[in-house]
Amino acid sequence: MRGEKGFALVIALVVTALLVGLLVEFVNEVYVDTSHSHNFVASQQASILAESGVEGGMKLLQVSSAMRMGGNYSSLLEPWASPQSFAAENGSVTITIEEETGKLNLTTATPPNGVTSDNPYTQMALRLFNRLKISTEIADALLDWVDVNETPQPGGAESNYYGSLKLPYAAKNRPLETVDELALVKGFTPEVLTKLKPCVTMYGNSREDETASDINVNTATREMLAALDDKMSDDLVQRVIDYRKTRPIKGMADFNSIAGIDAVSPAFGDKITFMGTVYRIRAEGRVGESVAVAEAVVRTDGGIGKPAVLYWREY
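The structure corresponding to this sequence follows.
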């Protein structure tokens, strides 16, 4: 009898242990499923906030255009140039805008025929590389990436090089489409791209000519201003920056009033503009631990009309 009672106790303990185990597993699954559900909802909400942030950025560009009252200029003194953060009911959204027209269009600097001797924008790119302390040898690799032939420049690389990599691919032999594509080109390391991205673009500033490369001196970086011409000394670049800190450069009369500008090449005026037309909007939506980013490149019409979207991605 005592043995039967002991056996029954063991069975009871085993059953109890099994029931506890099942209960723990059930509670854990419910917790995991609930967490996944909450995370999914939060990620969707963050994505919606990011998308709305891009729309808000476009509205900000329209407001800035209206404030110019028809003036043919744009500058870092306008509302769009300052990061904006807004609290939502369940999260927040942060909007930052960059003017692409203040950057060098690499499409113009890298001709498909590979001939660069008479291309002023190629020379501008080389000056920019020097200012950023980037080896100019990688310019050869960039030219090889876009030119239509398979003959490498002295410091460049064609499909033979890329085909020998651990994950082989071929040289594109067509114009670049995004700045991120540079990561595929020989020598364009993450460190190089970090330096270069604030100064280069793939978007022309003209609706009619996508390769147009006039650079807005109101929004160009210090390094980009220095790369515009051989005679853009550090002192002259600083005078341009000091001028635009307090008021926009509205045209050639304002620009020529800056001391020392008359020493720059007469052809300088053909490379610059005072108004941007292409902008990159980056909006980050945050809900709890979930973060979503929407990024768009838009072109304005110079007025208060809604900008046209040229590029969009979310991540």
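The radius of gyration is 28 Å.
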